[in-house]
């Protein structure tokens, strides 16, 4: 679990903005790998996500997410040229394995690298989301839509570590016995304990009136300056990504020959994406304090 980015309150604009606004900012960053497969634009999107994360003080969380993503990205780079042999530039002509001739082309290798880069950018954007958005505030956004689902999600996020500790303790106790029980028996005991705990929690919630819960009232709160700055940055990043794509940026062809577009729109997107991602942290108004718009 240390590899998974987790939220901790920090003095940054992304942490201070409301959950919905920071979520939209991270969604704008994730829009880049969804729209583009050009490695130059993807590099700009990766730089935008990494720089925003470092400015928000979650660089360590992003590093842990990168260590989690790197093996999967390398697997894509390795597997794609082995299973897809299209392309004009032959790099390796191997033998046959189970009737399959091994041929590795430059185009297949490049396409695997681009696919892994897209995955890397997407997971980095979600890592910023996981490290900067308070899950409790995020659940409060959906409680007016489905308050029972929000309550279920809240309980699940808090009971999952409890159930993991129960399973660990049962496993430790099982190792102390003369004849160690099978793993299936330990799993059944853990499942039975989880069901018992669920019944107890349900009974406690019913006694406290959650069975007759109603949709909570809407409370309007004024937007802070951090809400405004992060929302504007999210809109600018999303608009830049979409506008550059409409303008013809992001051209990339792997087959039959490798072609990477380098138009002015591509260069503009590469420069603008990191700069726009840093705008919530720029200037004196980015400092924390009484955050009124």
Protein architecture, described:
The model has no long low-confidence stretch (mean pLDDT 82). This protein is mainly α. It is flat, with a radius of gyration of 24 Å. It folds into 2 domains: 13-137 and 224-282, no CATH class; 139-212, no CATH class. The chain has helices at 13-16, 19-35, 39-55, 59-83, 106-132, 135-142, 147-175, 183-207, 225-246, 264-277, and strands at 90-97, 100-105, 252-253, 259-260. The relative contact order is 0.18. The chain is 64% helix and 6% strand. Strands 1-2 form a two-stranded antiparallel ribbon.
Low-confidence stretches: none
Instruction: Note the beta-strand portion.
Output: 5-15%
Q: For the report, how would you describe the main beta sheet?
A: 2 strands, antiparallel
The residue fraction in helices comes out at 55-70%
Cα-atom radius of gyration: 24 Å
How far apart lie the N and C ends? Answer: 37 Å
- Domain count, please report it: 2
Task: Calculate the mean pLDDT score and round it.
Answer: 82
| C-alpha geometry | flat
Write a brief caption for the model.
By secondary structure, the chain is mainly alpha-helical. 64% of the residues lie in helices and 6% in strands.
Topology:
Blueprint: H1 13-16, H2 19-35, H3 39-55, H4 59-83, E1 90-97, E2 100-105, H5 106-132, H6 135-142, H7 147-175, H8 183-207, H9 225-246, E3 252-253, E4 259-260, H10 264-277
């Amino acid at each position: 679990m240390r590899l998974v980015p987790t939220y901790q309150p920090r003095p940054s604009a992304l942490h201070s903005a409301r959950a919905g606004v920071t979520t939209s900012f991270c969604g704008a960053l994730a829009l880049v790998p969804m729209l583009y497969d050009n490695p130059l634009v993807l590099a700009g999107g990766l730089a935008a996500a990494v720089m925003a994360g470092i400015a928000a003080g979650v660089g360590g969380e992003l590093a842990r997410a990168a260590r989690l993503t790197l093996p999967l990205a390398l697997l894509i780079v390795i597997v794609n040229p082995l299973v897809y042999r299209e392309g004009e530039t032959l790099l390796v002509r191997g033998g046959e394995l189970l009737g399959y001739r091994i041929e590795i082309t430059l185009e297949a290798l490049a396409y695997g690298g681009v696919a892994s880069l897209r995955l890397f950018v997407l997971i980095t954007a979600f890592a910023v989301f996981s490290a900067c958005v308070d899950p409790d505030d995020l659940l409060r956004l959906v409680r007016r839509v489905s308050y029972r689902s929000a309550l279920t999600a809240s309980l699940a996020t808090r009971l999952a570590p409890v159930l993991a500790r129960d399973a660990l303790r049962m496993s430790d106790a099982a190792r102390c016995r003369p004849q160690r029980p099978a793993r299936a028996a330990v799993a059944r005991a853990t499942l039975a304990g989880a069901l018992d705990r669920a019944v107890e929690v349900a009974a406690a919630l019913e006694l406290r009136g959650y069975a007759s819960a109603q949709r909570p009232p809407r409370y309007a709160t004024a937007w802070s300056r951090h809400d405004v700055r992060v929302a504007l940055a999210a809109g600018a990043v999303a608009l830049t990504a979409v506008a550059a794509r409409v303008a013809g940026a992001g051209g990339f062809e792997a087959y039959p020959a490798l072609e990477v577009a380098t138009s002015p729109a591509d260069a503009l997107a590469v420069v603008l994406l990191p700069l726009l991602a840093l705008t919530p942290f720029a200037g004196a108004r980015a400092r924390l304090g009484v955050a009124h718009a």
